[in-house]
Amino acid sequence: MTLMKSWVESANDPDGWFPLNNLPYGVFDDGKGPRTGAALGDKVLDLAALEEQGTVPAAGFRGGSLNAFMAAGPGSWERVRNALTRMLADGAEERDRVAGALHHQSDVTMLLPFVVSEFTDFYAGRHHASNVGTMFRGPENALPPNWLHMPIGYNGRASSVVISGTDVRRPWGQLKGPNDEVPRFAPSRRFDIELEMGAIVGQPSDGPLGVAEADANIFGYVLLNDWSARDIQAWEYQPLGPFQAKATATSISPWVVTKAALEPFRCNPPRREKELLPHLRDVGPMLHDIELEVTLEPEGGTEETIVRTNSRELYYSSAQQLAHHATSGCPMRVGDLIGTGTISGPERGSRGSLLELSWGGKEPLELAQGGARSFIEDGDRLTLRGFAQGDGYRIGFGDCTGKVLPALEDPYS
Ligand code: CA
């Protein structure tokens, strides 16, 4: 596939994130109330206005979240995408009617794009799991025996999911004392990022799902930063897994990139080290070739890239994660957010967390602008970016960014 030309000139930039091939959905507010929009070049197209005109099929674009549109189902997703693609293409006769519904992205505020009904986070990156396992339990026990047989996950908190741009305050928590002394209650000193993708469930289910069915139920994807307090995590995680270490905030990018836009970028999973059980077996290319990066901008400093990796480094696809999630009969809802877990590649510069980049603080990451980081410092801004590279166009996700504020003086005063 090549670039689909649009009469919106800024959408035809080969390095832009939002060509006509993309058309991601988000929720924006220009002062007149939240409604659904689609990104195109440097513009946002007001879908609620087009719905009112009868220019696009009605799909609940005035509700302030994508949930109604997602619930309307794959037939509706396809009809709306086809209608938008036609009316925004170069030479479209609807141009004059549609042009009035375009706003500059710089004039609007982006809001959380959907009501997050539940949030589950997986641990589906092979390199991340073996790096963290090596640091926490030693190289012999790096991968738990279940890891190569199913995607490991935990139930997170929908309430902690925030839109890109939201500041994140360094948490307090219970930390292990040195030499097994009594624990302390203090601000986390090992606060970290996790570079992840999030899949959004667009169709409900109530019972087991095959991998292909699970893939069909996914509406789209966002970038996701699962902020993590490593010192809280190391003390609390056994035997029931992470809890307060992951409850401060999880940031997501504002635009939901549809599964349809990512179709040309599907790729095969890595070689299976152990054969998967039949219900989780691969049934086609369900990973995506999406280039990912993380930048760090110290307070008063400049932004520099600290991680470069690719989402094809995942071992389990989002479809496999969703299929596994439903095996017990767990009902899945429209607006369920399924985090992949940290995506790390094999080299140091492709590790998706500071924990891995600094190897638990033992090898601090040297910054090009001077200084070093083992973990996040107050005032640091961390930004995730990602895009799939097509032939003369890119499918971009937009920024997933957040700045870390100092811990409160005393949270109980
Ligand atoms: Ca995570």
What does this structure look like?
This protein has 413 residues and is an alpha+beta fold. It folds into two domains: 9-111, Fumarylacetoacetase, N-terminal domain (SH3 type barrels), CATH 2.30.30.230; 119-405, Fumarylacetoacetase-like, C-terminal domain (Fumarylacetoacetate hydrolase, domain 2). It has helices at 47-53, 67-71, 74-88, 95-99, 126-137, 211-217, 230-236, 259-262, 318-325, 354-357, and strands at residues 25-29, 35-40, 43-46, 102-104, 109-111, 118-122, 153-155, 161-163, 168-169, 172-175, 184-187, 191-192, 195-201, 218-226, 228-229, 250-252, 257-258, 266-267, 287-288, 291-297, 304-310, 336-339, 365-366, 372-373, 381-389, 394-396, 400-405. Strand 25 (381-389) and strand 26 (394-396) form a beta hairpin. The longest helix is centred in the N-terminal third of the chain and has 15 residues, at 74-88. The structure holds calcium ion. The site of calcium ion (CA) has 7 residues, from loops.
SSE topology sketch:
Layout: E1 25-29, E2 35-40, E3 43-46, H1 47-53, H2 67-71, H3 74-88, H4 95-99, E4 102-104, E5 109-111, E6 118-122, H5 126-137, E7 153-155, E8 161-163, E9 168-169, E10 172-175, E11 184-187, E12 191-192, E13 195-201, H6 211-217, E14 218-226, E15 228-229, H7 230-236, E16 250-252, E17 257-258, H8 259-262, E18 266-267, E19 287-288, E20 291-297, E21 304-310, H9 318-325, E22 336-339, H10 354-357, E23 365-366, E24 372-373, E25 381-389, E26 394-396, E27 400-405
Parallel strand pairs: 6-22, 8-16, 9-27
Antiparallel strand pairs: 1-2, 1-5, 2-3, 3-4, 6-7, 10-11, 12-15, 13-14, 13-22, 14-16, 14-17, 18-19, 20-21, 20-25, 23-24, 25-26, 25-27
Helix pairs in contact: 6-9
The chain binds calcium ion (CA).
Calcium ion binds at residues 121, 194, 196, 226, 339, 341-342.
